[in-house]
Design a protein that fits this description.
alpha/beta; Glutaredoxin; five-stranded mixed β-sheet; 5 helices; elongated
Amino acid sequence: MTKTKFIVGILLAFFIGGALIYTLISKPQAPASSFTTLEGEKIALNDLRGKVVLVNFWATSCPGCIKEMPGMVETYKQYKDKGFEIIAVTMPYDPPNFVLKFVEDWQLPFPVAMDLKGEAVAAFGNVSLTPTSFIIGKDGELLEKKIGELDFVRLKALLDRELKA
């Protein structure tokens, strides 16, 4: 009887240890979210597998968001043909007419989605501060979450590394 308990204890320890190691080394996956762009196009994150994706939550009233837009535009233009995508998601409180004017004035080259019902905000962990960016790897892994303005030198180094893999 004690031999059986010992074997069960060893098996249990291996199982718990394996589960712990798996949890520690595996990266969280991005939510299976989808967005509707200003043009009415539906974009599902799952459909972007094979690309590195930056999901950027922003608002037209956010100084940091406005400050980082030129860097986002430049980075998008530099990396879009190498397998990089940006989805700029406005916060639910952002008035649609402000968003449309901003996108028109800035001639944003990447998809912009309005999260009027807060579904994307909720799916990404109840985003409340802007800008907040999520970088998603080719396999759907959440590579990084950044609250505040992006560091474009660091972002480009990450893109160079991830897009080569």
